[in-house]
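New to this. Please check this protein:
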Amino acid sequence: MEKRERDKLVLQYLTETGYHLAAAAMREETGMASTATIDLPSGSLRELLDQKAERDAVEKARDTSEIDEDDDLRPALAGEEPTFFEGELVLSLDLTDYHATNGLSARLLPSGEVVAGSVDRKLKILKVLDEHGGCLEADTVGSPTPFPHVCSGPVLSIDYSPSRPEYILAGDMSGNATVFSLKSNDIVFTCEKHSKYVVRARWSACGNYFATASYDRCVKLYGPGLNEKEEDNSEFKLIKTYHFSGAVEALAFTPLTIPDDKAELIIGSRDDHRLHVITLSTLSHRTINMNANNDGWVSFTPMFISVSPNGRYILVSTDKDRLILYNRETGKLLRNLYGANNDEFSNPVHCWHAGGHFIYSTSQNHEIVVWELRSQREISRLEGHSSVIKDLHFLNGKLVSTGFDKSVKVWS
């Protein structure tokens, strides 16, 4: 449902229930003229809510939610809330001291360093945590370590290898993706060029595979090289190129909790109602219908994808103001999360708390929205950015964000 239609439903409800001051304020804020006719049947919102209540009752009677039964998402002790990441802004670094332009991507490394990429095509390394995992003071961070190699275009996506964190995979706006070594300052591997932007570049949990996603409607999957029988003795090699009906926006690998022989790559593109799932060991391909009623209608785009820490769930950020949670194996739709404003002009990102209890998502109002997964409750909004937030990453109890306000922020 489009935002204008939702506004009409709420305005009709306020008017019908006598909340005239609230209705007048809403007309002013939404730009609906006081004389504009609400061309909806009476009681439309209440009817929709009644229908939802009936569906929920049927669903509850038929099947207990698997999330409610998931021991990984239960509190540690009965009656206890899981440890909540408070979201206190503990460090804010002005990237204008390090980059000439907006921040686009960032990753917090296990070493306590942040690797940040921006519009100026450069990678910079900033030490933000001490040896005990505590945040350094802003005035002690010091100058960043500039990486000697410049990317071919603005750096849209960064990731590091879990098995070799000094290996940084960077995808840029020129269509190039490159593996750099922070240890040797060398280029380890240059990927096959895409014909359009590389919007996502991700390593697998084991570190043996990585993939690049592009607006050229392709995903390129790479794996181990060093085959003595082949002329090319590169450390990595292209395994396969996958083609899709629309620009590819999102991809994610399963975590280490999934055995190697069942590890998967999940892909989402525009103009497709399905997620595409590739098993890495066999390259077999299956799909998940993202629509609750399993039809073929394309009503939203999967803009960002992740897999829960326990590997059981896929979380999808959409361009329709909601995040959707699916069972990874069955494809069943389990949860809808609302509260983050992200329309068709947005590029939302999200990440998981390490325990899987909480979700963090960007919103177009420059906030980070936090939900408790089992209850679907919005429990916090992290404020501090003054412009579009482009990337989030959670590691070792710290959340890192960067964006168009030319800053890198660390939350703890």
Observations:
- The first helix runs from residue 3 to 16.
